[in-house]
């Protein structure tokens, strides 16, 4: 969202543990109007967090739907606060037909407010037959399936300029401590180690989640994600302390903390891959590749590459994922055509449109890997589709939006405050617990 949690992997990545997929339904082909222009004269309004190159590439998918069905489409970018924007549109009698929901917590919220239509039998059959159980789980609320995951993200990738690392004489690290050491070597060579997008609080939650999953382990991660474990737990304080060592090291962060707090996600990618590089590395999801390629003309695998987020303190290297789920609103003026769009998004045909454009991973196992534009993405997609079950969904995306998905509030704001002053991890943990408790009770 702007650009929020997005998609790609790399060759040699730790097994991306997710068996995903979404295809044309198991018992027969999904029909989005059958190619007979049966939806001519109708307009489907779609709301989502995407902007920039992501919005442009999703529009190509919508245009393909139009060519197939005759339905016109209109995309409305919500920015990060998708929950607030969609809620106000519903209250104002101007609900979109389809929303691309970037957070499990928001999907849960929408369903419990009675805003969503259960998926059609065709879509449900598709997901049951072709999606890994984890995606059906995250698309369901109280046993009812509402969301179709169209776009998946691998959130455990550290992107770097091969030229910058080569000039510094360092290789992609295997552990978190090695990564910080390599960062100091890059800094000594004239560039900062990392560009940090502190203006976008969601990037900071991703830093925390990768450290926490590796350091504390999957069981505690699951417990914290559902607030069965309090944020005041010592494991949280330990992870914040680890993250704070990076935040307070002016050699490691381009421009220091102040500049990081004024750098958004696209800006952080520009600091590494733009015309005037300021840093050698940027941590974020595979969707970094789309920005590096589309906005700065980088060849993925040559001018821009990544290494898996490394293991922390002897733990297992983390694999954090995310995704954008298509849902249909009951109050949309054309919910029927909206459901047809959702059925189309389930097909490999739809996924191939964005796959060819880049900056995208599909959880559709019937999508031909040749559809992807480069070897790095192709290897990532293969790993994603064929993976196991150790992956964990983005923690902040599982939380209520008030805590895990609202600009200027909750976890986003508190981690921005922590970036500004990381001297009191225990105090920050207490503030996080207070905000989480309030949001989960609400």
Automatic annotation (TrEMBL):
<protein>
    <submittedName>
        <fullName>Sugar ABC transporter substrate-binding protein</fullName>
    </submittedName>
</protein>
<comment type="similarity">
    <text>Belongs to the bacterial solute-binding protein 1 family.</text>
</comment>
<dbReference type="InterPro" id="IPR050490">
    <property type="entry name" value="Bact_solute-bd_prot1"/>
</dbReference>
<keyword id="KW-0732">Signal</keyword>
<dbReference type="Pfam" id="PF01547">
    <property type="entry name" value="SBP_bac_1"/>
</dbReference>
<feature type="signal peptide">
    <location>
        <begin position="1"/>
        <end position="24"/>
    </location>
</feature>
<keyword id="KW-0813">Transport</keyword>
<dbReference type="InterPro" id="IPR006059">
    <property type="entry name" value="SBP"/>
</dbReference>
<feature type="region of interest" description="Disordered">
    <location>
        <begin position="423"/>
        <end position="442"/>
    </location>
</feature>
């Amino acid at each position: 969202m702007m650009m929020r949690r997005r998609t790609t992997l790399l060759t040699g990545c730790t097994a991306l543990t997710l068996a995903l997929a979404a295809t044309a339904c198991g018992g027969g082909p999904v029909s989005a109007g059958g190619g007979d222009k049966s939806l001519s004269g109708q307009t489907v309004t779609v709301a989502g967090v995407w902007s920039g190159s992501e919005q442009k590439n999703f529009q190509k998918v919508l245009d393909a739907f139009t060519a197939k069905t005759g339905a016109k489409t209109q995309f409305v970018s919500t920015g990060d606060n998708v929950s607030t924007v969609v809620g106000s549109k519903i209250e104002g009698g101007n609900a979109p037909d389809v929303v691309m929901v970037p957070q499990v917590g928001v999907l849960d919220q929408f369903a419990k407010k009675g805003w969503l239509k259960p998926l059609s039998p065709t879509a449900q059959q598709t997901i049951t037959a072709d999606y890994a159980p984890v995606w059906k789980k995250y698309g369901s609320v109280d046993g009812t399936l509402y969301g179709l995951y169209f776009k998946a993200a691998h959130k455990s990738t550290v992107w770097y300029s091969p030229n910058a690392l080569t000039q510094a004489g360092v290789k992609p690290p295997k552990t978190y401590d090695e990564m910080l050491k390599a960062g100091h070597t890059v800094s000594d060579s004239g560039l900062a180690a990392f560009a940090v997008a502190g203006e976008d609080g969601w990037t900071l939650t991703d830093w925390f989640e990768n450290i926490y999953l590796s350091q504390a382990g999957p069981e505690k991660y699951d417990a914290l994600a559902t607030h069965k474990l309090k944020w005041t737990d010592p494991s949280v304080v330990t992870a914040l302390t680890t993250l704070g060592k990076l935040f307070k090291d002016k050699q490691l962060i381009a421009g220091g903390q102040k500049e990081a707090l004024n750098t958004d996600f696209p800006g952080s990618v520009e600091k590494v891959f733009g015309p005037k590089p300021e840093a050698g590395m940027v941590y974020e999801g595979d969707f970094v590749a789309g920005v590096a390629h589309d906005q700065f003309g980088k060849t993925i695998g040559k001018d821009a590459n990544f290494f898996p987020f490394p293991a922390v303190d002897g733990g297992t290297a983390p694999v954090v994922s995310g995704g954008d789920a298509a849902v249909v609103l009951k109050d949309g003026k054309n919910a029927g055509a909206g459901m047809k769009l959702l059925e189309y998004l389930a097909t490999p045909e739809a996924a191939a449109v964005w796959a060819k454009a880049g900056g995208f991973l599909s959880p559709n196992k019937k999508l031909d890997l040749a559809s992807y534009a480069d070897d790095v993405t192709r290897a990532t997609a293969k790993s994603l589709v064929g993976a196991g079950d150790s992956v964990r969904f983005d923690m902040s995306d599982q939380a209520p939006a008030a805590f895990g998905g609202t600009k200027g509030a909750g976890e986003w704001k508190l981690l921005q405050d922590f970036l500004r002053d990381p001297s009191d991890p225990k105090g920050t943990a207490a503030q996080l617990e207070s905000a989480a408790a309030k949001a989960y009770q609400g």
